[in-house]
């Protein structure tokens, strides 16, 4: 997590505004604090503020800070509380540094540096990087050699950029297991993602790979590989799609992104036509993912096993490699991720690569993200930039690709998939019913979501959405599992949100609902015209259109996203930037 940006501008230029523009695009990576530092007239000026970027902007507007070379940071706190003192850039003498990642051996390094007389002023792991750089500069090293020695010493993950009072036209940057790109335009830029550098008028980009670093002096960039040999990474044009379009007419990115689902699904169907032959000879499918992407993968398990008849394992990426799993022959691995940067998913993929000869596919939303550069083949969800921290349109787009894979040998279902966008539109038209429902839920301390079969992962996803943005504790359960324990939670106040479309499991779910109704009054059912007729009359129901049973997961999640959104609105939380979260999770 954390977003970093760096700009080496032209002589006389003031890059402060551009640093802030870059940080605006990176705020999704963390918003515990923000800061920037610039070099001017032989000095480094630092400005930092706790909380959202707006606080830094307010400070900057009242300041005279300027410089033609500078770095910026938006923080998701790992080591040290989210205070102004722990905000980046972190200084040591003539050096200022911004860092995304974790220095795992910082305690030992801190101890050694303290013995050498370095005084630590923050609780961050990053401060060791600043002092290590400063020590080397004080010994007469160049910024590039100072960086090299730091890269040799620190363990863990880093994307970092540093500026120097005594080398006022130089910036150095390096990465290891945290993303970093170098942008070329009217200035030379460094950023955690392309969106940030595209917003600073860069037209081309070069990716740094693990262990690589760059030294920027004026408008000259030198690149070095992990052995510090000079390299020339490929420069690629930045496509206009990387620039996010803002909130438009909507109050929040999340609402806009929920509303964009019909077009996101339509684009995803049009540009992805998985060929059933990709499963020839595959005896097992192994999916790794986290969070919402994990729930999409859980749905895929139901589909893959039913329609491809291939056993499918779905693994929580952060757990997977630590149990040293054995991977048999003929496995197709799939990593599912919106950002393509989630470190847990990347590491799980690396484990699969090292421990098997499996082909590895990725489903990603962000083009050229780390995952897409290491996968054998990539299917892109065409959801467009997703800014709201709570994932919505990327989830339904992931489900759409996974469904296209699962149905690739079933022409009837593939053809029917094309109707999804218009059914989505019908469901979105019901938003006002969901808004009313939110009023019944918003005072609850806790909520339960129930679903069976492929709707069970949707119950989990519905609960996650509510937790993330309204801070109401919520749990999703397989409806049939309730009686084995969780039913003890039900009383008259507990909202029990049930997903009960018509189909094979309708009667079973209906019985589970009866059991819940016998114990609580706050039961709500999402169902269809068949359910309206056959489920108890006295219960609150939201009636969705009749659809092919297999498509229910893609469609039933939409009202749950809306429900979480409207509940959060009533509770006055920060919908797009909920507390403690970040959009891209690049730490373990
Ligand atoms: O970018 P990814 O899909 O790999 O991210 C995985 C999770 O961090 C993500 O889905 C997270 O759970 C979202 N906040 C859910 O809304």
**How much helical structure, as a percent, in the residues?**
25-40%
Q: What small molecules does this complex bind?
A: 5-amino-5-deoxy-1-O-phosphono-D-mannitol
Biggest sheet: strands side by side, in what order? 3-2-4-1-10-9-11-15
How far the N terminus sits from the C terminus, by CA atoms, comes to 10 Å
SSE class: alpha/beta
Structural Rg? 25 Å
Q: Could you list the spans in which at least 5 consecutive residues all have pLDDT below 50?
A: none
**CATH topology group of the largest domain:** Glutamine Phosphoribosylpyrophosphate, subunit 1, domain 1
The CATH homologous superfamily of the largest domain is termed Aminohydrolase, N-terminal nucleophile (Ntn) domain
- The shape, in one word, is globular
Number of helices: 20
Q: Count the strands?
A: 25
CATH class of the largest domain: Alpha Beta
Under the CATH scheme, which architecture of the largest domain would be assigned?
4-Layer Sandwich
**Main pleated-sheet profile:** 8 strands, antiparallel
Tally of separate domains? 3
Describe the structure.
The N and C termini lie close together (10 Å). This protein is of the alpha/beta class and 588 residues long. The protein is 36% helix and 24% strand. The longest helix has 20 residues, at 552-571. The protein contains 20 helices and 25 strands. The mean pLDDT is 94. Bound molecules: 5-amino-5-deoxy-1-O-phosphono-D-mannitol. 5-amino-5-deoxy-1-O-phosphono-D-mannitol binds next to helix 9.
């Amino acid at each position: 997590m954390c977003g970093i940006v760096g700009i080496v501008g032209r002589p006389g230029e003031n890059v402060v505004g551009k640093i802030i523009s870059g940080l605006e695009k990176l705020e999704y990576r963390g918003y515990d604090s923000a800061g920037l530092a610039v070099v001017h007239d032989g000095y480094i000026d630092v400005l930092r503020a706790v909380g959202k970027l707006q606080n830094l902007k307010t400070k900057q507007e009242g300041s005279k800070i300027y410089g033609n070379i500078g770095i910026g940071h938006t923080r998701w706190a790992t080591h040290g509380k989210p205070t102004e003192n722990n905000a980046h850039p972190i200084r040591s003498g003539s050096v200022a540094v911004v860092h995304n990642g974790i220095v795992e051996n910082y305690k030992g390094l801190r101890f050694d540096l303290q013995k050498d007389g370095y005084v630590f002023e923050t609780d961050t792991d990053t401060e060791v990087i600043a002092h290590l750089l400063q020590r080397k500069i004080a010994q007469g090293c160049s910024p590039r050699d100072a960086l090299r020695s730091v890269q040799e010493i620190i363990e863990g993950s880093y994307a970092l950029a540093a500026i120097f009072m005594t080398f006022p036209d130089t910036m150095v940057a390096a990465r290891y297991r945290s993303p970093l790109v170098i942008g070329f335009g009217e200035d030379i830029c460094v950023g955690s993602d392309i969106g940030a550098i595209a917003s600073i008028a860069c037209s081309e980009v070069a990716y740094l790979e693990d262990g690589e670093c760059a030294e920027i002096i004026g408008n000259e960039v030198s690149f070095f590989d992990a052995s510090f040999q000079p390299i020339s990474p490929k420069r690629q044009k930045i496509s206009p799609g990387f620039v996010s379009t803002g909130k438009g007419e909507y109050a929040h990115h999340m609402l806009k992104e929920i509303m964009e689902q019909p077009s996101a699904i339509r684009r995803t169907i049009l540009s992805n036509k998985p060929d059933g032959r990709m499963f020839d000879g595959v005896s097992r499918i192994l999916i790794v993912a986290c969070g919402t992407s994990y729930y999409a993968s859980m749905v895929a398990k139901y589909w893959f096993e039913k329609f491809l008849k291939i056993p499918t394992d779905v693994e929580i990426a952060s757990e997977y490699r630590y149990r040293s799993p054995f991977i048999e022959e003929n496995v197709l691995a799939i990593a599912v991720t919106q950002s393509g940067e989630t470190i847990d998913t990347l590491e799980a993929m690396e484990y699969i690569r090292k421990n098997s000869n499996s082909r590895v596919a990725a489903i990603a939303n962000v083009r050229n993200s780390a995952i897409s550069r290491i996968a054998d083949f990539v299917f892109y969800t065409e959801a467009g930039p997703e800014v709201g921290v709570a994932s919505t349109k990327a989830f339904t787009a992931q489900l759409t690709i996974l469904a296209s894979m699962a149905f690739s040998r079933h022409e009837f279902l593939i053809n029917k998939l094309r109707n999804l966008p218009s059914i989505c539109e019908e469901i979105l038209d019901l938003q006002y019913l969901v808004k009313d429902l939110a009023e019944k839920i918003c005072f609850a301390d806790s909520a339960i979501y129930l679903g069976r079969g492929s709707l069970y992962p949707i119950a989990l996803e519905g609960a996650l959405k509510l937790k993330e943005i309204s801070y109401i504790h919520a749990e999703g359960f397989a409806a049939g599992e309730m009686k084995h324990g969780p039913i003890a939670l039900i009383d008259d106040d507990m909202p029990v949100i049930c997903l009960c479309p018509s189909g094979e499991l309708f009667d079973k779910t209906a019985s589970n609902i009866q059991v819940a109704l016998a114990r609580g009054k706050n039961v709500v059912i999402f169902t269809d015209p068949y359910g309206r007729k056959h489920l108890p009359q006295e219960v609150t129901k939201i009636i969705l259109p009749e659809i092919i049973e297999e498509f229910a997961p893609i469609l039933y999640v939409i009202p749950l996203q809306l429900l979480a959104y409207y509940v959060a609105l009533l509770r006055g939380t920060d919908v797009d930037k909920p507390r403690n979260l970040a959009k891209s999770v690049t730490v373990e």
